[in-house]
Structures are given as structure tokens and as C-alpha cells.
Amino acid sequence: DLTTGKLLPIAGPEELFTHAVPIEYDEDADTDPALAFFRNYFPLEAMDQEKQDSLVCFMRDWLGYCLTADTGLEMRVWFLGGGSNGKTVLSEMIAAVLGKVEDGGVHSSLPISSLCKGRGVNNDSMSDAVRARHLTVSEIDPNTQINEAGFRALVSGEEMHLKKMYKSETKCRP
After folding, report:
1. Which terminal residue of the chain, N or C, has fewer Cβ atoms less than 10 Å from its own Cβ?
2. pTM (2 decimals)?
3. Nearest C-alpha neighbor of 33 from the set 60, 62, 61
4. Which residues contact 107 (CB under 8 A, 6 or more apart)?
5. pLDDT at residue 107 is higher than 70
6. Residue 170 in contact with residue 162, Cβ under 8 Å?
7. What is the mean pLDDT of the segment spanning 151-168?
8. Phi and psi, residue 162, nearest 5°
9. Shortest CA distance to 155 belongs to which of 139, 128, 132?
10. How many angstroms separate the CA atoms of 161 and 153, rounded?
């Protein structure tokens, strides 16, 4: 319950939940391995203790936010950097924990080209992605022009227009 912070029991079909994270909640779970993973991911050799603590805290909060249906923060996170520094490993780990939308989870992936298409253009990937709470978008190059309105709607939950191949354009909210 996002208003009280109280964990509710597993929802039944009558409650019409469309997504669930495939992880059993354990209030007494040892979170040290997860925090150690993020401390290792943001090593002290690359930053001071305060920055590391801040990044670890951010990752914990952001991942928790991804588990909710709330879009009030209108939040998106970009992982930037050269190759072979762990961006893909981190993204795959997050996707595994959150579960795929098609399996009842909250994660989906999206090719960057889907964020570049305008209104009225076939965009099956974007149509499928609106059901996700967490998206991984493929790598971007400096010349990519993202459709700002579509991206903003995807992040904020604003109404957007989508068109699947051989279908009429429809309005929806992510």
C-alpha cells in the first residue's frame, strides 16, 4: 500500500493486478549482499565514501521505486560510460529481479529506434513497453534524435498515441 508503506498480501485475480515481481518478500532478508554488490559496483577507488554512500542509497531507492506503480517522480535513469564497465551487467541483474512483463513482472526492453518514431508511425515495441514499470533501452549514439513527447509520456504516465502494425492509432497511458 503506497499510502501507508504496509506490505499487502499477494493479490488475487479479483483485485485486477496486472504485474507482480517474481520474488517472495522476506522482511528478515539479509540485504548486505545487495549493498555489497553496489559498493563494489561504485568502488572507492573511483570516488570518495560520501559519493559511494549516496549512489548506493540512490540505487536502493530507485529500484524500490521501480517496484511501485507510482510515476509521480517522473524518474528516468541513464547509465553513461565507455564499454566494459558494467552497465549491461547491472541492467540485466535489475531485469532478472524485476521479471519480464510477459511473465507477469515489470521489466521490458525497448530498441532506441522506438523512442525516435513520431505519432502515427507503426511502433509495436513502444506499444508493448507501455505495460512495463522498468525499461532497458538499447545503446544510443550521439546522432540519435529521441521523440521528446513520446519519451516524456512514457516516463510521466501522460496519455500517448500509439500505433501497432496493421492497427489503428490508439490512446493509452503507460
Report:
1. N
2. 0.69
3. 60
4. 94, 95, 98, 99, 100, 101, 132, 133, 134, 135, 136
5. yes
6. yes
7. 85
8. -130, 150
9. 132
10. 9
